[in-house]
Specification:
The chain has ten helices and 30 strands. Helix 5 (474-491) packs antiparallel against helix 6 and helix 8 packs antiparallel against helix 9. The model is unreliable at 1-11, 33-38, 407-438, 462-477 and 562-577 (pLDDT under 50). The strands form nine sheets. Strands 21, 23, 24, 25 and 26 form a five-stranded antiparallel beta sheet that branches. Strands 1-3-6-5 form a four-stranded antiparallel beta sheet, with no helix packed on it. A four-stranded antiparallel beta sheet has the order 11-12-15-14, with no helix packed on it. The chain has helices at 2-33, 421-425, 427-433, 435-472, 474-491, 495-510, 515-520, 524-538, 548-567, 572-576; strands at 43-47, 52-53, 57-64, 72-73, 81-95, 98-111, 115-119, 123-124, 127-128, 132-137, 151-158, 168-176, 180-185, 193-208, 211-224, 228-232, 236-242, 258-264, 268-272, 286-287, 289-296, 303-304, 309-318, 337-341, 345-351, 354-367, 371-375, 378-384, 389-395, 398-403. The relative contact order is 0.07. A hairpin with a 2-residue loop joins strand 5 and strand 6 (98-111). It folds into five domains: 43-137, Immunoglobulin-like (Sandwich), CATH 2.60.40; 151-248 and 255-272, Immunoglobulin-like (Sandwich); 286-403, Immunoglobulin-like, CATH 2.60.40; 421-472, no CATH class; 474-576, no CATH class.
Length: 577
């Protein structure tokens, strides 16, 4: 009974502990599987135009990627805005296994007063949108039109005195109080200029001299290519206007009557200024905003010899074309630091507030020897069209440190390090606290030491037995195996296997330990193919590599080696010495 009483409590305690563990795990899983309702939905606010004029309508859009807590209450907007109408839309998509959702509430409003008006917080149940603002300008007092005009156009250019190749905003507004069936509009025309349409057309309502109009607004970016006076020709609109008094609903036998109207805008003249004398850069680059930065694929202080490190330079410019962006990585590198640049990535985005240009350059840098390498500073002078001053975008001088591929160039060969000594040296310390663990490591160390000794003995015995064969035939057999492995890798387009075969061949042929070193001993064509293989492997795009060209270059390189050997037979005794 005593034995039973001594055993039961521990068993009960273990059962209780196990039950508690199961309960905690179950609660955690339940918590993870239960949808969380404590996180607020992220709601964004945008306006279709900013700034706007008084007595002009515009749209405020509230968007969310998940359903908010409740329906929106837009009554807070009525303090500074008149709500004309509102609508809601939603969309879902499934791309690459990931689903996305977008819900939008669009409110068409008109400001009640001029100024910097606040778009207040809008409640969506317990969720809420952030505060935003919109600039409302006073109505243009200079607009005096004949209220009898049903259709007319207005154009403006800003600035009217730009510097050469800088961005000029050209805005067209079409005012109408009639219904148009169809229309055709000419594009802006002027000599020696680049013209780009910006974004989509926007539509809103306004009131001029007490008359309500619907307005369609279109924006262009114009980049004049020479200085002097440049005239933008008038735009011409040809429209089919529905006549009044006719039925608005058509049928096959009853078509609506239309009249053709042709309206024309005024011509505008730009006074384009030449490059300012204060600009001292070699490459003229006007822009509203410019940003230059660099990124690295790894640690610049721990580059590996023979392995690539990718440098990515990006140049972002607002208010210019991509054709004006200069080359970023024009500096030459050290002969011991090979550079393999990719094709630059050039992009342009046409936003409603101007053109955005982007240039990215990637360069793989491969050191051939350990040491420090210094990359010179990169400086991009540019002209700020907002401040009318020259500025400098700069990346400072960068120093790279290359180490051997193993990371420890002074480490002796593995065979020179007695494996058992590491645990044996610490045996006394470990034994004080963990005697059982010490015994385990001691036996592991003895086992490894015995295996190492047996391996060395077997290797030496085998070497003694086959020594005459190695002197005559073994190199050819090993070389043949390397070539066969390379051939199969190239046939299968296996870049990784091709690398291993080339490294095995290079170690036997040249005592080279990396692809960069192997390439140095080959002719130009094979060298280029090996470096291309190395670049493909570093770029993580090895699935698209084709091995046919590499093996063809390897075969031709090997054939040339044999030709040279046969031609230089008279030097063979000297070579053996």
């Amino acid at each position: 009974m005593k034995l039973t009483m001594d055993i039961l409590p521990p068993i009960s305690f273990r059962r209780a502990l196990r039950f508690s563990a199961y309960f905690i795990i179950a609660m955690l899983m339940l918590f993870m599987l239960t949808p969380s309702t404590s996180f607020a939905a992220d709601i964004n606010v945008t306006v279709d135009r900013n700034p706007v004029n008084l007595d002009e309508s515009f749209q405020i859009t509230f968007s969310a990627t998940e359903s908010p807590d409740g329906e929106p209450d837009f009554s807070a907007l009525e303090q500074d805005f008149a709500i004309l109408n509102q609508s809601q839309s939603s969309s879902s998509s499934w791309i690459n296994g990931h689903s996305s959702k977008l819900i939008q509430w669009t409110v068409k409003v008109m400001a009640k007063q001029a100024g910097n008006l606040v778009i207040p917080v809008i409640k969506f149940g317990d969720d809420a949108s952030p505060v935003d603002s919109v600039v409302v300008n006073e109505a243009d007092a200079k607009k005096t039109i004949n209220t009898g005009e049903e259709l007319f156009m207005e154009v403006e250019a800003s600035p009217e005195d730009p510097v050469i190749q800088s961005q000029v905003f050209y805005t067209l507004r079409l005012y109408t109080k009639v219904e148009i069936a169809q229309a055709k509009l000419t594009e802006p025309e002027l000599a020696d200029a680049v013209v780009e349409k910006l974004g989509d057309d926007s539509s809103y309502n306004t009131e001029l001299n007490g008359v309500a109009y619907s307005v369609t607004e279109r924006k262009y970016a114009i980049f004049p290519q020479k200085s002097g006076l440049l005239t933008i020709k008038p735009l011409v609109l040809t429209a089919e206007v529905l006549t009044s008094g006719r039925a608005r609903f058509n049928s096959f036998f009853n078509s609506q009557m239309t009249t053709t109207k042709r309206v024309e805008s005024k011509a505008l003249t730009l006074n384009v200024k030449p490059v300012p004398a204060a600009f001292t850069g070699k490459h003229w680059l006007p822009a509203q905003q410019l940003e230059l930065k660099q990124e690295w694929s790894g640690d610049v202080q721990q580059m590996k010899v023979g392995e690539p490190l990718t440098r990515t330079l990006t140049l972002f410019a607002k208010g210019t074309t991509v054709g004006l962006l200069p080359e970023l990585n024009a500096a030459s590198t050290n002969s011991q630091l090979k550079a393999y640049p990719d094709q630059p990535v050039l992009q342009e985005q046409k936003k409603s507030d101007g053109l955005i240009a982007f240039r990215a350059e990637k360069t793989a840098l491969i050191p051939s020897q350990p040491g420090n390498y210094t990359l010179p500073a990169i400086e991009i002078p540019w002209f700020n069209t907002e401040t009318q001053k020259m500025e400098m975008a700069k990346i400072p001088e960068t120093t790279l440190t290359a180490v051997s591929a193993a990371g420890q160039p002074t480490t002796p060969p593995a065979a020179a390090i007695p494996a058992p000594k590491t645990p044996a040296a610490n045996a006394s310390v470990i034994a004080d606290t963990h005697p059982q663990e010490t015994n385990v490591w001691l036996w592991v160390s003895v086992f490894l030491a015995m295996g190492w000794i047996v391996t060395v003995i077997a290797f030496l015995s085998k070497r003694q037995q086959v020594k005459p064969v190695i002197d005559n035939k073994a190199p050819d057999v090993n070389m043949s195996a390397c070539i066969k492995a390379l051939k199969m890798a190239c046939i299968n387009n296996d870049a990784s296997a091709a690398k291993q075969a080339l490294l095995a061949w290079g170690r036997q042929q040249f005592d080279a330990s990396n692809l960069g070193s192997v390439a140095e001993y080959c002719d130009a064509r094979l060298r280029d193919e090996i470096l291309h293989l190395n670049q493909v492997l570093y770029g993580k795009d090895s699935s698209k590599w084709q091995g046919k060209r590499l093996f063809q270059a390897f075969t031709e390189n090997k054939a040339r080696d044999k030709t040279l050997v046969s031609e230089d037979k008279t030097l063979e005794p000297l070579y053996r010495l």
